[in-house]
Write a structure and sequence with these properties.
The protein has 2 domains: about 110 residues, 2-Layer Sandwich (Alpha-Beta Plaits); about 40 residues. It is built from 7 helices and 6 strands. The longest helix has 20 residues.
């Protein structure tokens, strides 16, 4: 018979895995997620363009290039849109410095800052970040170059997100999946 004391002894303590170990992530570096199963996923942050400000001819060209990009891929991709509340603190800080340099416009600048905060608070200003996750079993660097070139043809630039951005993107994705499962939505 096993006693309750022996069932909960410290010798059987299981160390919790880190976030990365739990997900099967070996390492995150320079935009690349190396997985424990020797696969790799490359993340690109896509800098958006204002499509609505383009002429009809430019819009049609962008759509044509985007269609070509999607149909000619040799690797698996996932397009990720991350939405979050807009942080205007750095903008407000820059504008506030103007009042120190020119005290005559202090009232106008303060009114502007109040306006910015009221718009953000009332309308719930949202910032959207766009990412492309690329998975390829071989030649991932070649696939990433193809995706970058295709994005340029669509009028977009891409950058390598920081490790912190990638970690936050993973956390956000998992949190949303868990919320959907708990809420019964899949």
């Amino acid at each position: 018979m096993v006693s309750i004391k022996n069932m909960f002894s410290k010798s059987k303590k299981v160390e919790p895995k880190s976030f990365q170990e739990w997900l099967g992530i070996k390492e995150i570096l320079n935009g690349k997620i190396l997985l424990t199963n020797n696969r790799s996923i490359y993340i690109l942050k896509v800098l958006p363009i204002n499509f609505k400000l383009k002429s009809e001819l430019e819009q049609n060209s962008i759509l044509m290039h985007y269609k070509s990009f999607l149909t000619n891929l040799d690797s698996k991709i996932q397009i990720i849109i991350s939405s979050h509340k807009t942080d205007v603190s750095s903008h407000v800080e820059i504008v506030s410095k103007v009042t120190k340099e020119n005290p005559k416009i202090k009232d106008a600048v303060n009114d502007y800052i109040d306006l910015v905060y009221s718009i953000v608070n009332q309308q719930g200003a949202i910032t959207k970040d766009f990412y492309i996750a690329i998975e390829a079993s071989t030649n991932i660097e070649n696939e990433v170059m193809k995706v970058k070139e295709a994005l340029i043809q669509c009028g977009n630039e891409s950058v390598i997100p920081s490790i912190q951005e990638i970690e936050e993107l993973i956390r956000t994705y998992i949190n949303k999946r868990v919320q959907n499962i708990i809420g019964g939505v899949q």
